[in-house]
Amino acid sequence: MRIPGRTILTACTVALAAGFLAGCTPSHPITEPAKTLKPTPTPVFTSDADALAAATKIYKKFEAAVDAIGHDGGEGAERVKPYVSDAGYRFEVAEAEKFKKERAHGTGDTVLNNSVLQSRVERNGVATVTIYVCEDISAVDRIGPDGKSLISADRGDYNDYEVVLKGDSANSLVIQSNKYWSGGGICKL
Question: Residue 59 is part of a domain; what is its CATH number?
Answer without folding.
Answer: 3.10.450
